[in-house]
């Protein structure tokens, strides 16, 4: 039994060291996603499936570009035009998941159903799976329903918070939505991550 525990401990240490070395060698200039643009420090712009242009601001933390804020205005033409994540963006998200657990989703900043591309690292961040599939998804669903229900547009904004500049996974994010037309009112919510 002692030998088995020793072997398991060695395997865990080797796996952790291997993955840390693998991810340490990835830089923004040799991005894990070689076929699509990866974020760089400063403003990055991304066109959605529905034609809206999002403005994403990245800064460097621990040698990696991380999302600090984003904004976009969407209309009904953006709805249901997004894409799912890919193995590339899932790997990109895991690279930034610095809590040592590697259990996060590759979360869309702008939701797939709101026109957000899942195949572009600029629109992806490491997101707690229960938040991504729970309260965050419900918040996005309300935005979707407001646009479907008569709002002519919605201006969305996000602010991401990090414990220190050494961390690459945000510990919380504030998501805000304002509407033109329809009966929906401005909403803003802060989510833990």
Précis, in short:
With 193 residues, this protein is α+β, with helices and mostly antiparallel strands.
For the record, the CATH architecture stands as 3-Layer(aba) Sandwich
Oligomer: single chain
Q: Considering DSSP H and I runs of 4 or more, what fraction of the residues is helical?
A: 25-40%
Range of strand content: 25-35%
How far is the N terminus from the C terminus? 37 Å
- Which structural class is indicated by helix and strand composition? alpha+beta
Structural descriptors:
alpha+beta, two-stranded antiparallel ribbon, six-stranded antiparallel sheet, 193 residues, Extracellular Endonuclease, Chain A
Description:
This protein has 193 residues and is α+β, with helices and mostly antiparallel strands. The chain has one domain (2-192): Extracellular Endonuclease, Chain A, CATH 3.40.570. It is 26% helix and 31% strand. It is built from four helices and eight strands; from the N terminus they run H-E-E-E-H-E-E-H-H-E-E-E. The chain has helices at 2-24, 87-96, 129-132, 135-148; strands spanning 42-47, 53-61, 64-74, 104-108, 124-128, 153-161, 172-180, 187-192. The strands form two sheets. It has a six-stranded antiparallel sheet with strand order 1-2-3-6-7-8, with helices on one face. A two-stranded antiparallel sheet has the order 4-5. It is globular and about 45 Å long. The relative contact order is 0.15. The model is unreliable at 4-30 (pLDDT under 50). Residues 82-148 form the Type VII secretion system protein EssD-like domain. InterPro entries: DNA/RNA_non-sp_Endonuclease_sf, Endonuclea_NS_2, His-Me_finger_sf. This is Type VII secretion system protein EssD-like domain-containing protein.
